[in-house]
Amino acid sequence: MSGTHTGVPSVLAHELPRPVPADELAACPVGDVFRRVGDKWSMLLVILLGGRPHRYNELHRAVEGISQRMLTRTLRGLEADGLVRREVHPTVPPAVEYSLTPLGRTLLEPLSALADWAVRHGTEIDEARSRHAAGSGAPSP
Amino acid sequence: MSGTHTGVPSVLAHELPRPVPADELAACPVGDVFRRVGDKWSMLLVILLGGRPHRYNELHRAVEGISQRMLTRTLRGLEADGLVRREVHPTVPPAVEYSLTPLGRTLLEPLSALADWAVRHGTEIDEARSRHAAGSGAPSP
DNA sequence: CGGCATCCTTGCGGATACTG
DNA sequence: CAGTATCCGCAAGGATGCCG
């Protein structure tokens, strides 16, 4: 076990093995970030912007499954958290460019570490699911 | 930039900078895992079980903000994914022990890397929020 | 082009009560 | 002790329409 990633191996092991104040996780930044990560679009946009800055409709086209509502909402949230920067170019047809802030860029690494894990063990998860489904309730179709 | 975490630096940079098939993220294990991480209780339980095996009511007491419904649901989900193992001891008062599988244990590291990031940059996020709130809509109370 | 406002559906998630 | 089952509130999220 042990932790040799960033330097703080047992942030969790120190924060949670205790009586867990319940909503402490929701109040502390960890819960906040976890929520963001779990957000269907947030991390997708972060990663997308990690590659290059994008314009609004460019993002809308890139994801192509998100509604304007969610695109704007998510971007606003990320902007509020200082992960994304919004630059408005006062041209004749208004052009808005979204880019990742330095802070947002630092998120890419722990994020990719997690994504990496998912890719690596994705098969195992899938197998475990099949195995579980087989022994639970899906006998004779 | 660069990536020196797990060994696969640009899983995301390779998967997403492309036209993003939209629901590809939702279908592939990455989206799945991200959803779990974002889940309010899942990772909390994983971390908790990462310390030691726990029994049902022991977990219920530990978190103490979760309902039986969510406790069971979350545990079942984690069990289905092969992250948690459920052992039933056929004693007179039934005793069920939940523990982390080897697979589940491997998740602890990328997870703590992310949590670590959150703790490290939590202040910056908070500051960015205040800064954003100050310039958006909270003028004179 | 880049948004914001509104409506309406979906399902997550909590509280409660009952069983093995 | 370890769940299962039911009810209900609430807000996340998609579709649509209008404005700068």
Give a written overview of the molecule.
Two copies of one chain form a homodimer. The first copy, chain A, is mostly helical. The first copy, chain A, folds into two domains: 18-101, Arc Repressor Mutant, subunit A (Orthogonal Bundle), CATH 1.10.10; 107-141, no CATH class. Helix content of chain A is 59%, strand content 10%. Chain A contains seven helices and three strands; from the N terminus they run H-H-H-H-E-H-H-E-E-H. A three-stranded antiparallel beta sheet of chain A has the order 1-3-2. In chain A, strand 2 (84-89) and strand 3 (95-100) form a beta hairpin. In chain A, helix 4 crosses helix 7 (102-134). The radius of gyration of chain A is 19 Å and the shape is elongated. The N and C termini of chain A lie far apart (43 Å). At the A-B interface, helix 1, helix 3, helix 4 and helix 7 of A face helix 1, helix 3, helix 4 and helix 7 of B. Chain B binds a DNA duplex (20 and 20 nucleotides) through residues 40, 55-57, 60, 66-73, 88, 91, 93-96. Chains A, B: This is Helix-turn-helix domain-containing protein. Chains A, B: Pfam families: HxlR.
Low-confidence stretches of chain A: 1-11, 14-20
Shape of chain A: elongated
Instruction: Give the class of chain A from helix and strand content and strand pairing.
Output: mainly alpha
Helicity range of the residues of chain A? 55-70%
How large is the radius of gyration of chain A? 19 Å
What is the class of the largest domain in chain A in the CATH system?
Mainly Alpha
What is the name of the CATH topology of the largest domain in chain A?
Arc Repressor Mutant, subunit A
Whole-number total of structural domains of chain A:
2
Q: Major sheet of chain A: order of its strands?
A: 1-3-2
Mean pLDDT of chain A: 82
CATH architecture of the largest domain in chain A: Orthogonal Bundle
How would you name the CATH homologous superfamily of the largest domain in chain A? Winged helix-like DNA-binding domain superfamily/Winged helix DNA-binding domain
Order of helices and strands of chain A: HHHHEHHEEH
Helix tally of chain A? Answer: 7
Gap between N and C termini of chain A, in Å?
43 Å
Biggest interface and residues each: A-B, 77 and 79 residues
Largest sheet of chain A: 3 strands, antiparallel
Strand content of chain A: 5-15%
The number of E-state strands of chain A comes to 3
Pfam family, one (chains A, B): HxlR
Keywords (chains A, B): DNA-binding, Transcription, Transcription regulation
Organism (chains A, B): Planomonospora alba
Protein name (chains A, B): Helix-turn-helix domain-containing protein
